[in-house]
Structure formats: structure tokens, C-alpha cells
Amino acid sequence: VQLVESGGGLVTAGGSLRLSCAASARTFDMGWFRQTPGKEREFVAALRWSGGRTYYAESVKGRFTISRDNAKNTVYLQMNNLKPEDTALYYCAADQWDSRVVVTEPSGYDCWGQGTQVTVSS
Hints:
Elements: E1 3-6, E2 9-12, E3 17-23, E4 30-35, E5 42-47, E6 54-56, E7 64-69, E8 74-79, E9 88-94, E10 111-112, E11 116-121
Parallel strand pairs: 2-11
Antiparallel strand pairs: 1-3, 3-8, 4-5, 4-9, 5-6, 7-8, 9-10, 9-11
């Protein structure tokens, strides 16, 4: 499965962006992570295939929303009230084998996109 992210860009603080991640085939649990230079990849949000439960990092709760369109094999991350500390390279991740493992850790996924840059200016 290939994942292609889009929707990143430059936005001023308080603004919004919607990231998209299109999968080339059906996937199961999906998530978003982000990374800044010199730091480890950080969990942002995840969506369980079975039951549709969502998970969010504390830092983005109430501001970000993860959703998916199964017909399009696409997952979205709506990001509102963006802050400069949200600046990062955002990665989409997918579990293509229905492994049902921890979705808040990178180890829970076996497929990754190339990343899309989000920059929030103050």
C-alpha cells in the first residue's frame, strides 16, 4: 500500500489546514504523526478501523479532528486554531494487515507516507 499526503503549507497562528492521506488500497487503523528536526516522531491522532474510535495527543485535543472516507481510501486531519508549536513534518501511517495493535505508537503501523510540511507562523 502506498500513502500520499497532501494539504500542508504555511499558515498564520489561529488558522486552519486540512491534511489528506490517500491510500492506494484498503487499509485498517490509520494515524497521523509529526516530527521536527532532532526530535522523535510524535503521535498526533489515530482512527480505529473497527468501531471508529479516535485517539488524540493531549496537545491537539479540541483543535484537530481525524476522519476517513472509506470509499476513497482516504484519511483526513482537520487542524484548527493552529499554533507555532504545531510546525512539523506530518506523516500519515496505516496498518494494512488489521493487526489491531497500539495505534498511538509508530510501531503500530507498517506503512508510511512521505510527509507533508506544516508551518505555522506567529
